[in-house]
Please model this.
Amino acid sequence: MENQMEVVNNTTRILIIEDDEDFSSILRRVIEQDSELQVVEVINCEEDALNRVKSPNIHQVDCVLLDLQLPMSRGDKTVSSLAGIRILEELRHQQGFYGTIIVLTNSKSPADGQRALAAGCDGYLCKRAKISDVPEMLAELKMAIKGEVILVASMMRHVFIRDDISAKEARLLDLLSVDKSWAEIARELGYKTPKAAANVGDRIFDKLLTPQDRQKLTAEGSKKRHKALEIWQSRRLSHSRG
Model:
């Protein structure tokens, strides 16, 4: 297991959970060519990964790159196809991790992708790429790590995002619901400026509002933020009752 490195302010801190040592080494080298990105640790089995994500300092990590298929423990030659899903669910549903989670896998199965997205990942990277596609794939991965995920619909070739609200977006809405300012939200969620946080918020509002909502808001001259938060709070209330 790699030793944890000193964390630098204003740097996106990345945890890699990947059992392919050659791939994780290449990934780490490419990522750290960017001065704003830092790999703090590389873990290669489910047992060590679960211990790490259950530790209090997991919230010091900004992004997790997570392989779907991992051995249960160090030295184990058998891999579990559900190991990554179990780690993902632990991060999102037990530890309340709001950072970016990007799944790494050799699988081209849409079912695997949808399972990972339903469990709470923000993006999905298929490692089976042509050599000619690798530079573009890695460039998109860097964008995804920084929270600038783009949609690539063709065969899940690179990185794509969920249609629903991600964990980090949910946290932003929750902060807005208790009247936090954009400056406070930017500090807590790691956006560079209040304006950047507000721009993300505006995109989230568009996800929540139906075309009919937007048409009505235009006619009434109302702000979509208020309507979006009303919808979000109603959804939260419904979920807690269910």
User: Anything to note?
Assistant: The longest strand covers residues 37-43. The chain has a mean pLDDT of 80.
